[in-house]
Amino acid sequence: MTDTLPDPLRSADLRAGTRPVIRPRRLRATPALRRLTQQTRVHPAELILPMFVREGVSEPVPIGSMPGVVQHSLDSFRAELSRAARAGIGGVMLFGVPEHKDATGTGATDPDGILNVATRLAVAEVGDALVVQTDLCLDEFTDHGHCGVLDAAGRVDNDASLVRYRDMGIAQAESGSALLGLSGMMDGQVAAVRDALDAAGHTETAILGYAAKYASAFYGPFREAVGSSLQGDRRSYQLDPANRREGAREVLLDVEEGADVVMVKPAMSYLDVLADAAASSPVPVWAYQVSGEYAMVEAAAAHGWIDRERAIDETLTSIRRAGAEAVLTYWAVEAAERWARS
Ligand code: PBG
Fold first, then answer.
1. Catalytic residue among 54, 213, 234, 320
2. Fewer CB near the terminus (10 Å): N or C of the chain?
């Protein structure tokens, strides 16, 4: 603002008194005005539903800490997929819950492992309507529950984990996954899996880098959802919640390594990191509204302490407003169906 330009807000006339000239409330006066001037909208095509598929069950198993979310049997999985496709959401992100785990997570690379079986089923059922995506991480498949394999001293071995991720990537691509969600937070994972996919001829399979994934307490309910056997924590590979610049660096690294999409996770406590990523990334930026974010709203709503549907929509709008172009959310189908009715 220079002194030579007229500035209405600087005029003493306008600031003083009880008759403001600038009235932002004009555009809030009626539902039609508010609708026309709304600056952020969330479309069902921008929502992705995370789904858990459990090996060896014939009925869906409820997840206590995530009311309304289940570990699917293959039958209930199939039914929920067609509901998701009818609702018009953008895609599904699949997690496997295997019956048996071991030190290197062999179930992850076995073509008959639950995640690969579920992926083939999803691609066959809804592969044209939905982008079928898979979690590429070892934690659901390892008996120690870490996202990678361990060295002799019991530490997570970055480079040995990359070898497993490469094989897991190929197994998932061969099962038909369109987008591999690399959530393990090993250094170099995007470059390693890209190289393996390309060498195996899977040049069309895309990579979603969980670029800025923080060591968060909000993953709590997920650990129940996948029957996690983790002892300890993931702080040697996931980011410290205090670190904003480090999140920005991880985003740029994943982009350089060839990620087709980058992710910030969790969403609501990391909207600043998300806004940074949205400003700097040349590829789409998504956010994962994680299990604990879901559980908090459900629990408060169950007590009658907040308006559940308004709270859900407010969270999704906030994440979208901060810069996410798509959101992974356990409410994806419910929200899409509800918005279609309203
Ligand atoms: C790791 C993974 C986790 C989540 C998604 N992928 C858990 C973790 O890092 O401990 C959490 C998702 C959620 O909480 O909803 N494979």
1. 213
2. C
Provide long-range contacts, Cβ within 8 A and 24+ apart, for 297-305.
Answer: 298/66, 298/67, 298/68, 302/67
Angle subtended by helix axes 114-126 and 158-175, to nearest 10: 40
Report the atom number in ligand 1 closest to the C-alpha of 137: 16
| Main-chain phi, psi angles of 270, to 5 degrees | -130, 30
Return the ligand 1 atom nearest residue 292 CA: 14
Residue 165 in contact with residue 187, Cβ under 8 Å?
no
Q: What's the CATH fold of domain 42-341? A: TIM Barrel (3.20.20)
Distance from the CA of 219 to the center of ligand 1, in angstroms?
A: 6
Question: Residue 200 burial by CB count (10 A; 0-12/13-18/19+): exposed, middle or buried?
Answer: middle
- pLDDT single digits (tens) 110-121: 999 999 999 999
The predicted model scores a pTM of 0.95
Residue 24 makes CB contacts below 8 A (sequence gap 6+) with none
Q: Would you give the DSSP letter of residue 73?
A: P
Quick one: DSSP state of residue 198?
H
- Cβ–Cβ < 8 Å for 78, 72: no
Residues with pLDDT less than 50, the chain: 1-2
| Residues 95, 53: Cα–Cα separation, whole Å | 6
The letter for the amino acid at 148 is G
Per-residue model confidence (pLDDT) at position 1 = 45
Secondary structure element (H or E) that encloses residue 163, with its range: helix 158-175
Atom 10 in ligand 1: which residue has the minimum CA distance?
219
Q: Treating both helix axes as pointing N-terminal to C-terminal, what angle do 271-280 and 244-257 enclose, rounded to 10 degrees?
A: 40
Find the catalytic residue in 202, 234, 265, 320.
265
Strand pairing class (61-62; 70-72): antiparallel
The label of the residue with tokens 């492992």 reads 113
